[in-house]
Amino acid sequence: MTDKTKKKATIYDLSVISGISPSTVSAVLNGTWRKRRIKEATAELIQKLAEEHGYSANLQARGLRSSRSGLVGLLLPVHDNRYFSSMAQYFEAQVRSTGQCPIVVSACRDPDEEHQIVESLISYSIDELLIAGATDPDGVHDICERAGLKHVNIDLPGSKAPSVVTDNYEGGRLLTQALIERMREQGPVAPDELHLFGGRDDHASRERIRAFRDVKRAMLGGDPDSCIQPTGYSPGNTAHAFEAFHARHGRLPRGFFVNSSINLEGLMRFLAQHPQEAFADIVVGCFDYDPFASFLPFPLFMIRQDAEAMITKGLSILSTTRPPIMTHLVAPTLVPPRTALIGPLDALKDPDAVHSVL
Amino acid sequence: MTDKTKKKATIYDLSVISGISPSTVSAVLNGTWRKRRIKEATAELIQKLAEEHGYSANLQARGLRSSRSGLVGLLLPVHDNRYFSSMAQYFEAQVRSTGQCPIVVSACRDPDEEHQIVESLISYSIDELLIAGATDPDGVHDICERAGLKHVNIDLPGSKAPSVVTDNYEGGRLLTQALIERMREQGPVAPDELHLFGGRDDHASRERIRAFRDVKRAMLGGDPDSCIQPTGYSPGNTAHAFEAFHARHGRLPRGFFVNSSINLEGLMRFLAQHPQEAFADIVVGCFDYDPFASFLPFPLFMIRQDAEAMITKGLSILSTTRPPIMTHLVAPTLVPPRTALIGPLDALKDPDAVHSVL
DNA sequence: CTTTTTTGCGCAATCGATGGTGCAATAACC
DNA sequence: GGTTATTGCACCATCGATTGCGCAAAAAAG
Q: Closest Cα partner for A295 from B333, B126, B270?
């Protein structure tokens, strides 16, 4: 405002115009001035000046000196997904409320990307890191360890750092059970009428598949291997799997468990190619919640993972001194078809909304 | 690896163990060594050493010296939304491919938050900023301007910096027209049978509403004010608007235009409260694309905004020397019901996918 | 064998903030 | 009034990398 100069004011600028030493200015502006026995009047003077000149600390300089940066990272597999983007949303709010700066990045489920990105975050001296859904959590751990960076795994556990993950077995159990019960409303269910699509060889998929098989064996008396198709986390591959099944059997399975909302997008691609009748009587489960998917024109049971609780727990572990290396389970919930849950966006105020129309 | 020390190696460490001066080490490791006429052998030696000791530059130090940071920011209204999260996805990929570090933050559509967050990004000396969907683009501009930070508006235009936005009028026109044509398949359409919900007093909403009204007047011969309900970008408020309409008329409008996927979530909340029959014959348009929403059990026309093109254009403007202050329009596309488009995630490789099952 | 040119690299200041140490001036005490 | 305590603040090294400048040794030119 008062300064037309293109560059930001520094403590030296304030020092010159106030005739007070830079170290005193620094102390005043970073809040340590009482400890340094600076007179209240001096502090007020400097604060006023800083205000007038729009001073704000150069955080790179501060970070260099203190080898901390005030940055807290969240490493995601992908942004473009309601589960992970809601994590990002909660993460931002919580980190910002501690006065730190959240920085969210995605590594596309590529281990090399994960490593590179973490290295680069370390180069920026980030203070803490939440590693969500990493393909190689232990590899990332080693990198963090070497740099002395505090970190926690979220969503997919690692063996070398504390982890916070959904109780995937329980979620898988809830979902499979709900599917079978719903299918039984249409008549008896044979073991080969309930399939599973999607997921890969990671902890979450394994647990979900284990639950799926356990429940099938207990409730249906059987569990053929051919009912499991881990197509990876790719909409395209999942769509192919549905097409292949349909080509072979002339229809989709009566019931199936889709391992994530990303795989569920594969189902949408299949649907786009087929008339509504092709799936008039299917019952579907999806391990993820999406508000639109919940209203699709077939019964769709969803599992809502508690992203908020996981972020909260993860951050609280980070603020613990020497957290034990263990895996914390967070309970997911079964969401029946046609359910609209509220999400992180509901916490936002919207002052411009026009209410009068009601 | 070779070093057990907890701290990262610096150019000084490498200088000591190699007997070569820090400045030479620095030059070698930042690539300016040819310009400084360093012997090739020396360079190789240092590079080998750096490799062995897992050296990576302290970017805070570099940033301090050069008053650049290698960080490029994307300021979003919210993460938890397919439109913005796909922007984030494209943004990350594109920025990373230039060797810079993307940093994505959200400001919750709160002007104060926007200002604060931008101030803090500036404190980290970020090099460039994409401002997406800002509530107060010109306010943010002033802050950037003062700090000499290059910036571009995306999605919502500002008057003081270059902007890249969807052609909202054209999108609104396409959508309204598609709605009316579809409604006419069921019989003649009266002006008060087509409504609009959602949006607030921003450029995008105004343009969409203008198109909506123009098309209604042209095609239906009328355009009552009572058909427009800008409920803000809040699922809750939107749901209330639907409930209120339903309470008054005993049904939803035959056709309606929903201003964003966030408002569409409000419709889901309404649906959850009512039996399927309550909306057997509605025709809906939504200004945003979501792959699941597209398959909802009623005709839902969607507008897909070209996030990728907007990011690309925005970044290219940032790399221009003195870009003119103008608004670039990006054409959106009309997406008919039951369409599964591919998105940014399809660019990802997925090595672990099991294809054999096909 | 000089003189000039080129090669190769080191010196030292700098970016902005932090914090340990030390030194006056003032206040408190006997 | 002289001595000790306290208050208030300045000095300066430091964090790690960058970069203009300059100097010695080697090479080329004369």
A: B270
Q: What is the pLDDT of residue A350?
A: 56
What gap in Å lies between CA A274 and CA B81, rounded to an integer? Answer: 28
How far in angstroms lies nucleotide D10's C1' from the CA of residue A223?
Answer: 79
Closest CB to A85: pick one of B61, B80, B352: B80
pLDDT, residue B53, reads: 94
Nearest nucleotide (C1') to alpha carbon of B123: C16
Region A143-158 average pLDDT: 95
CA separation for the pair B240, A357 (Å, rounded): 10
Pairing of strands B101-106, B71-76: parallel
- Order across the sheet with B300-304: list the strands: B228-229, B194-197, B255-258, B283-286, B300-304, B333-335
Query: What is the average per-residue pLDDT within A344-356?
Result: 61
Which DSSP symbol is given to B275?
-
Is B264's Cβ below 8 Å from some Cβ in A? yes
The predicted pLDDT at position B4 comes to 47
B334 strand-pairing partners: B303
Q: Which stretches of B192-333 are DSSP H helices?
A: 203-220, 235-249, 261-272, 307-318
CATH class of A66-161: alpha beta
Taking the Cβ of residue B199 and every Cβ of chain A, the question of whether any pair is shorter than 8 Å is answered with no
Asked if residues A352 and B232 have their Cβ atoms less than 8 Å apart, the reply is: yes
* Reported confidence tier of residue B310, pLDDT bands at 50, 70, 90: very high
Rounded to whole angstroms, the distance from the CA of residue A11 to the C1' of nucleotide C22 is 22
Nearest residue in B to A293, CA atom: B292
Portion 267-306 of A in contact with B at CB < 8 A: 268-269, 271-272, 290-297
pLDDT score recorded for residue A357? 35
CA→C1' distance for B36 and C2 (Å): 29
Residues lining strand C at under 7 Å (Cβ) are A 7-8, 10-12, 22-23, 26-27, 29-30, 32, 36, 55, 57-58, 61-62, 64-66; B 19-24, 36-39, 41-42, 61, 64-65, 67
Whole-angstrom distance, CA of residue B348 vs CA of residue A266: 14
pLDDT value of residue B8: 87
> What's the confidence (pLDDT) of residue B356?
37
Distance A140 CA to D30 C1' (A): 64
Among B104, B117, B201, B263, the strongest candidate for a mutation testing the A interface, having the largest count of A CBs within 10 A, is B104
The angle, 0 to 180 degrees and rounded to 10, between the axes of the packed helices B82-97 and A82-97 is: 80
* pLDDT tens digits, B171-195: 999 999 999 999 999 999 999 999 9
Q: How many CB pairs under 8 A join A and B?
A: 264
- Give the CATH number of domain A168-305: 3.40.50.2300
d(CA A117, CA A100): 20
Cα end-to-end span (Å), chain B: 43
**For residue A173, what are the contacts with CB-CB under 8 A and spacing of at least 6?**
A211, A214, A215
A66-161 and A168-305 have identical folds: yes
Residue in A56, A105, A108 closest to B102 by CB: A105
Q: Where are the alpha helices (DSSP H) in chain A?
A: 11-18, 22-30, 40-52, 59-66, 82-97, 111-123, 137-147, 168-184, 203-220, 235-249, 261-272, 307-318
CB contact under 8 A, B357 and A233: no
Residues present in chain A in total = 358
Is residue A4 over pLDDT 50?
A: no
The domain ranges of chain A are: 11-57, 66-161, 168-305
